[in-house]
Amino acid sequence: MSAEIFSKVHGVLAALQAEKIENAVDLEAFRIKYVGSKNEIKALFGEIKNVDNDRKKEFGQLLNDVKQEAEEKYESYSVTLEKNVNSRVVSDMDLSAPCQPVSTGSRHPVSVVMNRIINIFERIGFTVAEEREIEDDWHNFTAMNTPEDHPARDMQDTFYLKDSTSELLRTHTSSVQARIMTSQKPPIRIIAPGRVYRNETISSRSHCQFHQVEGLYIDKGVSFADMKQTLLYFAREMYGPQTNIRLRPSFFPFTEPSAEMDVFWGLNNDDDYRITKGTGWLEILGCGMVDPNVLINCGIDPEEYSGFAFGMGIERQAMLQFKITDIRQLFENDTRFLKQFSGVI
Ligand code: DAH
Known about the structure:
- The chain has 12 helices and 9 strands.
- The protein is of the alpha+beta class.
- It has 2 domains: 90 residues; 233 residues, BirA Bifunctional Protein, domain 2 (2-Layer Sandwich).
- It has a 7-stranded mixed beta sheet, with helices on both faces. Strands 2-3 form a two-stranded antiparallel ribbon.
- Strand 6 and strand 7 form a beta hairpin.
- The N and C termini lie far apart (79 Å).
- The structure holds 3,4-dihydroxyphenylalanine.
- 3,4-dihydroxyphenylalanine binds next to strand 8 and strand 9.
């Protein structure tokens, strides 16, 4: 009885040794037959119960050898076949040919500047709030204390949606202030980056769409000094540690008092003269203490809370930083222009 089973095992061994493996299909067939989960050798292990007791050990040993032989053959052919495949690829290749340039994408200069601004404010605890670009009249104007007869409300300046005088494309990110103040309780500390629209004639200096970053900080006891310090910190992070700022009195319906902030750009060459109109100073944002009317409109008690807000344009800052002379280039998506910013983060 034992002899018969032993010869069966020897038969399998001879067969697997004789098996020709020339390609991946042969290899897979070999694997299924001798290495896979239901292989022939495994089945033979079941026969051990029919082997005479004094030969059981010898039988086990033999089967293990056969199993190992199958696995080794499979392994070695896997490696050889793979090598052959690779060497074929290599031999087909002209290693001296110049490589195809890989064209990588790059960040848009507007995104670069926007991300820098976001980063700076995130470091001092502002979080990013994003809101809709199609706004209603209330959030864009009324809540922001902008009177009915304000020129910004004119069709000439604002894109109203078809058949509607209450739906419009937001003219500034200040509308996000109203959205946030009516949905969150103070303390509020947000920045709102995004696209805005104005019905302007397109020229090298202005466009009908552009980007702004809005800032809003509301809490108990927030003062003008807090605003000044925050904006000074921003200016120095953005334009260098030696940067000086100045605040000029101004007017916005939603802040009282209001100011415009300039950074000192320098007055060293003709370009500086042209860009700063001979003053050395460059206006970069509007700001002020949130008008009590705005707080009331949004359900916040101005006796308990105060806050500051600011809003700045991105394109102008991108144009200054990258010496871009025509705003239209920022929206044409000409890859020859955009490629120049590859690697800029
Ligand atoms: N919304 C103003 C604009 O588009 C910019 C601005 C000025 C925003 C003063 C503010 C602010 O939050 O306090 O021209």
